[in-house]
Amino acid sequence: MDRNEVRRAWDDVAATYAARRDPDGSDAALIDDLLADLPDDPAVLDVGCGDGARTLANLPSASVGIDVSREGLELARETVPTARLVHGEMSALPVGDERFDAVTAYHAVFHVARERHPAVYAEFARVLRPGGRLLMTLPGGRFETVRRGWMGGRMFFSAPGRERTLTQLREAGFGEVETTTATDPLGSSTEFVLATRLE
User: Fold this and answer.
1) Percentage of residues of the chain with pLDDT beyond 70
2) What is the pLDDT of residue 50?
C-alpha cells in the first residue's frame, strides 16, 4: 500500500480502532515515565496520535498531535479539544527543527514501508531538541503485509526487525536506548523503546 492508501485505510477504521481499544493497558503508564525525564511544561509531539485518547490526552497542554488520517484527527478534536492537531506524514513532519522535548509514536511507524523507517527516525531526531526523548513501539519481527479484515477494513504493516530498528535509531542520532514491555491497546504484550537524541 502506498501512503495515500494507508491514509484512506486509517480513515476507514479510525473510529472502530478507537472504540475497540482498551483504555487501561500498561503502555499508557509509560507516558508518566517519559514526562518524569522532561523539563517542566515540556513540548511533546505525538506522532500517529489517532483519536488522542491513548497518548495525547495524557500529555501536557503544549503538546501537538500529528496524524495521516483526517478522520483520526476529527476524533482527536473531540477527545482533546484544546490540543493542537496537524495533518501530516511522519517521514516529512510539517514542524520546525528542535521544537520538541519529546516525541511519542505508539503503534505508528510500522504503518510506513520499512525502507522509509530511517527517514522517519531522522525526522524524529530533527524535531527534537538535543537531549530530547523518544518513546515508541518497537516492532519485534521482520514483516511486510496487508491484513485484510483488520478492524473491519485492511491495514498495512511493515518492519525490518527488532535489531535493525534499534540500529536505525542509533544511526539517526539516538543513544541511551532502553527497552521495556507493556500491554498494548488491544491487549497484547508489546515492546517499547525509550531513547535520547544525542547532542
Assistant:
1) 82
2) 87
Grid cell 520546525 — which residue? Answer: 96
pLDDT above 70: residue 20: no
* Cβ contact 85:48 at 8 Å: no
List the CATH number of the domain containing 27.
3.40.50.150
| Mean pLDDT value across residues 23-33 | 78
> For the chain, how big is the Rg over CA atoms in Å?
15
Distance between CA atoms of residues 168 and 51, nearest Å: 28
The parent domain of residue 52 ranges over 3-197
Check: CB of residue 177 under 8 Å from CB of residue 166.
Answer: yes
User: At 191, which amino acid appears?
Assistant: E
The verdict on pTM exceeding 0.85 is: yes
Q: What is the pLDDT of residue 13?
A: 47
User: How far is 41 from 43, CA to CA, in rounded Å?
Assistant: 7
